[in-house]
Amino acid sequence: MTTDLIARLVPRRSWWPATRAGRVGLVLLVATAGAALVGPFFAGSPDRSVAPPFSPPDGDAPLGTDFLGRDVLARLLTGGESVLLYAGLATLVAYAVGITVGLAAGYLRSWPDPLLMRSVDVLLSFPSLVFILLFATAFGRGIGAVVMATAVIQLPAIARIIRTATLTQSARGYVEAAVLRGESSSSVLRREILPNITRTLSADVGLRFTWSVLLIASVNFLGLGLQPPNADWGLMVSENRAGMSVALNPWAVLAPALMLGLLTVAINLLGDAMSGDKK
Amino acid sequence: MSTPQAGSEESSARAGLEDTGTPRATVLDVVGLRVELDSGTPVVEGVSLRLDRGEILGLVGESGCGKTTTALALLGFARPGTRIAGGEVFVAGEDILRLDESDRRRLRGKKVSYVPQDAGQALNPALRIGGSITDVMRRPHEASGNGVGALLTAVDLPGTAEFAARLPHRLSGGQQQRVTIAMALACEPPVVVMDEPTTGLDVITQAGVLDEVRRLRDELGTSLVYVSHDLAVVSRLADRIAVMYAGRIVEEGPTATLLARPEHPYTKGLVQSIPDHTRPSRLTAMPGTALGVEDRPQGCAFAPRCPQRSDACTERMPELSGTGHRVRCVHADRTPPIVPGPPRTARATVERGLLLTVSDLHASHRTGRDAVIAAAGVSFDLGSGECLALVGQSGSGKTTIARCLVGLHRRDGGTVALGGEPLADRVRRRTTDQRRRIQYVFQNPYESLNPRQTVGEQLARPARKLRGLSAAAARAEVGPLLEQVRLPAGIADRYPRRLSGGERQRVAIARALAAGPDVLVCDEITSALDVSVQAAILELLADLRGELGLAMLLITHDLGVVAVAADRVAVLEQGTIRESGAVEDVLHAPEHPYTARLVAAAPTIGRTDGPLAVPDTGKSQT
Questions:
Q1: CA B58 to CA B333: how far, in whole Å?
Q2: Is A20 in CB contact (< 8 Å) with chain B?
Q3: Which of B273, B129, B116, B123 is nearest to B200 (CA)?
Q4: How far apart are alpha carbons A255 and A73 in whole angstroms?
Q5: Is A9 at the interface with chain B, CB within 8 A?
Q6: CB–CB contact A183 B465 (8 Å)
Q7: Residue A1 is nearest to which of B64, B406, B428, comparing CB atoms?
Q8: A67, A110: one domain
Q9: pTM
Q10: pLDDT at B62
Q11: What ipTM did this prediction achieve?
Q12: CATH topology of domain B354-601
């Protein structure tokens, strides 16, 4: 009876967040990601110097200028794309590998489980920044190495979550019924298990993506990833540190930092809301 | 232990001695209790109850009827998301609902206490049981004179310091439940509310706890509200029974008259749904299922399922009328007396030869170096069209044995043969035809259907996979399959979350039938269901056997289910078959002492005399 009740309350549009916090997250996400994706088409040139360095906001440059006299608004609108692109790419790679490893370990058990999981655990023993340094040294500076390193850093946690969810699913009647029918492992995983762990995944994706955004931004801030003169929110915070004092132009730092903050908050609110209706 | 007659004389004598006023004083008086959801929808409405000193009131109903909500309201407590919206609850003369929270807390434990369902979860795992008990006593009112040792002795546990110093995980389920009862008694409250205190326990342990409860009432004169879904258990304990349906009491009266001549059609249906191992007969299942809180209809909530409804029933809610024996039904005078179902005769064994042969099966569960034996040399066979019940308590190995048969659990030794062909250890090594011939129905209907596939998709798959049908042909069979398990064809497009527990279990049975099996292995398939739903499922199984000539292996802990459904029975204890034979022989004249204890402990309606637990031979309990 209770289950029927819940069934009726679960909305048909499963992407629409059920809670107010979730809806706030959705609106924020559309705003920040929208600015990042559509912004480049409206922004002026991000590389041209328009005024003296660290000019305060005025009519021409509503957010003032940065340390080279470039328009902060133009750079803000252009600098989000790379954040989304590289963080998205890193998350995608991490999931592709993590899901495969987690499903295989959780479903096959016996010897693949310890083999796969212990190998993944080895990755956990490196602090993430050390790991990125390692990649940067091995493959040279540049965003490619950073994306790879970020994906590898995310991988163990994803594999673990998927493995646990798979273990729980494997004991369910419908999975055992499929095994008793003689379905192949890939069919059991694809038809019976994967569709039932997507909700666990949807809660987790937001979190991983947020981490990727922050990690890549901080690596760019450290100068290991994207190189100047690229416009990137993480890089902007780093370049303009000198302008933080009120007398100059604090917006050169605050605006990109705020965008990064809003983006992560939005994703987290949305992720929480999506996992909240699990009951 | 004294005889029950002597016990009750003793209790009335005590009641007379200790009471200042009349020997039968009312200790609990509930008037017009209403508990509602935050949205304002009533969960429990118009509940009025009285409990006299030394009396046991059984509060009975199926899941979702509001019995636990009512029980908690007796302590002035409402679960999150609900609130007590009206009524009066007088406990020992004080209206607990008028008090503020701190005064209510003062009353709880001292005037009224609560024994929860799952003792294992209710006890703080980090507190020694002695500490759990003194915690209750150390509350800011005058300390009870009773020591922990005396309390433990009172509930038939060792009253030693060593025992009091144990942590809950070192106690068995029955012992844990006794500790919660000791906690409830610590301040000697006049009223104790027990919420399904034996539901998670084995029948033998349950029998012991029930004896304990009755003895405590007799010795201490405590009044009890005993909440349960199990009418048979309540009938052996309670002086009066109140039956709840859809948030209201529909019938209330003295146990003997209420059970012998129920006046509400729901009570009658409930009594007829309960399988009785002492008298194997076909059950009479009630049509329909109970409705959710939000779906309760205008007028009598039972009307949609009622065989004797008229227009008057749907117009308005009938009153609970009568004195002594109260009933909420406009047509109570029309309710026919209970008709026992037609007696069931088990079929002759092995009419058409052996189908499944299990010999010398060994199986175990290994964790690291430890191994728990689940089967130690188990042998049995199953004839075509026969139903064999494998009975045992939790941990007896019955589920593992079933899983070995279908190839989900690796056996350590022995053979399983189907129609003379030996079966491989694991399901992947078996042929498609072997897989088709044995089908398994799982215990928990809430986990046995894929939430992300429609009923139709799940029913079509086995025929494609195991019988090589085309997608279209398999799809065409879905309708007839649903009809076979008495479900409307429209259900095929639904997802499992839209189905009730009973409907899900029917779909699970249909999924097994889709393969066209010879043997159906049913693992506790009714244990998660309400009795009225269980009755309908058991009837369905009986019909299917008749229609399809299926052989069945029925795994169960419930002797009532055995009596209703099986031809032969094998009694399992610690991985060994203790006794097997025709159902009637084993249940009426058990030869093995373990079977005898099991049969004696299994509750049946109306058998209220004598202690339930037969002491284990070897180690006497009292």
A1: 24
A2: no
A3: B116
A4: 9
A5: no
A6: yes
A7: B64
A8: no
A9: 0.79
A10: 85
A11: 0.76
A12: Rossmann fold (3.40.50)
